[in-house]
Amino acid sequence: MSKYKVEFDAERCKGCCLCVSVCPKNILIINQESINGLGYHTAGVTDMNLCIGCISCGLMCPDGAICVKREMMG
């Protein structure tokens, strides 16, 4: 189980790939099957268990569409 959860606000995502380019674990993708209300393909995670919680994706996103949260264990 992952210690972190990456959440996307799909309606704010423009599919710019900046988050994909900075992920050190290479787990972010632009989902070609997901289109938001503005017509953009949106970002997603391939394997949440590999997320290290570095928040690089959230910091890089120009639209504030990404939030990385720490999951409470227990």
Shape: globular
How many strands in all?
4
CATH topology title: Alpha-Beta Plaits
Main sheet attributes: strand count, strand direction, barrel closure: 2 strands, antiparallel
Quaternary: single chain
Strand content: 25-35%
What structural class is derived from the secondary structure elements? alpha+beta
Strand order of the largest sheet: 1-4
Number of domains: 1
Order of helices and strands: EHEEHE
Unreliable spans are: none
Distance N terminus to C terminus?
A: 11 Å
What is the count of DSSP helices, taking H or I runs of 4+ residues?
2
Helical residues, percent: 10-25%
- Rg over C-alpha atoms, rounded to the nearest angstrom: 12 Å
Features:
two-stranded antiparallel ribbon; 2 helices; 4 strands; 31% strand
Q: Helices and strands in order, then pairings?
A:
Layout: E1 4-8, H1 18-22, E2 28-35, E3 41-45, H2 56-60, E4 66-70
Antiparallel strand pairs: 1-4, 2-3
Can you put this structure into words, describing what you see?
The structure is a single chain. This protein is α+β, with helices and mostly antiparallel strands and 74 residues long. The chain has a single domain, classed as Alpha-Beta Plaits (2-Layer Sandwich), CATH 3.30.70. Helices cover 14% and strands 31% of the residues. It is built from two helices and four strands. The chain has helices at residues 18-22, 56-60, and strands at 4-8, 28-35, 41-45, 66-70. It has a two-stranded antiparallel sheet with strand order 1-4. Strand 2 and strand 3 (41-45) form a beta hairpin. It is globular and about 35 Å long. It starts with a strand and ends with a strand. The model has no long low-confidence stretch (mean pLDDT 94).
